[in-house]
From TrEMBL:
One of its GO terms (molecular function) is (3R)-hydroxyacyl-[acyl-carrier-protein] dehydratase activity. It comes from the Bacteria. PANTHER family: HYDROXYACYL-THIOESTER DEHYDRATASE TYPE 2, MITOCHONDRIAL. It comes from Neoroseomonas eburnea. InterPro entries: FAS1-like_DH_region (IPR039569), HotDog_dom_sf (IPR029069), Mitochondrial_HTD2 (IPR052741). SUPFAM superfamilies: Thioesterase/thiol ester dehydrase-isomerase. Residues 74-135 form the FAS1-like dehydratase domain. This is FAS1-like dehydratase domain-containing protein.
Amino acid sequence: MTGDLHSWLGRKRRVTDEMAAPLVRRMAALTDRADVALDRGAPVPNHWLCMLFDDAAPQSQLGPDGHPAKGDFLPPVPLPRRMLGGRRLTYHAPVRVGDTLERETEIAAITPKVGRSGAMILVMLRHTIAGPDGLVAVEEQDIAYLEPKRDAPAPKAPPAEAPVAAWRDPFAPDPVMLFRYSALAFNGHRIHYDADYARDVEGYPALVVNGGVTTLFLLEAALRHAPGAQVRSYDARTLKPLFCGRPAELCAGTPDKAGRCTLWAEDETGAIALRIQARLAP
């Protein structure tokens, strides 16, 4: 199934964006942050890079799920459903309001797998982000393409065992939160705002909480518990979706001396939905 896709390996694309003050203002509103300055040259939290470098595909080039149609830059994977499987990100330099940034994206790997829900193909993208003074961040992002939703439920894996939590914060994602994040990132994926599509076409019981939303609010919670720290690196892995309107918790273990710690989000049953290995340091 992936034979014809391997010719896409090594393809690259460059996108330029700006850490503009209006974007920073909107992200501060979404995350309830009153401590982030909007003056040109003011520092921006590292992990807020997630709102930049949207695809911005023309409306005529969108697929039925709201994503850009496959076969332009991303390979024409013959599986219909798409989700973010995980990401690994290391920050090398700070970002400031007004910085012009360039991201080079390379299709680094295409890997077929078989999961609990059937055949899947992982497409790994490597993003290299540079700013006025050189390298800013390197990210590896795993996009998982999945078979159509089955009528019969997929076999359930045993829930991941959670470590002992040093703290727990309630997390209640609602449709407005999902809309504001999708609008900020210009993310058109319909499972995050079109409940009928999410339920009737992709088989979810409710709107799916963006993995990016959970990651953002989990990192924000970690920083509230570590005043003065920044996110220096993290490795996030999606284990199962969270659904809009259902209660969840953001949790963390005790950090080591280097600031490394395990962060995770639990759904209403106590199962881990997303897990992050992060390093927080001044």
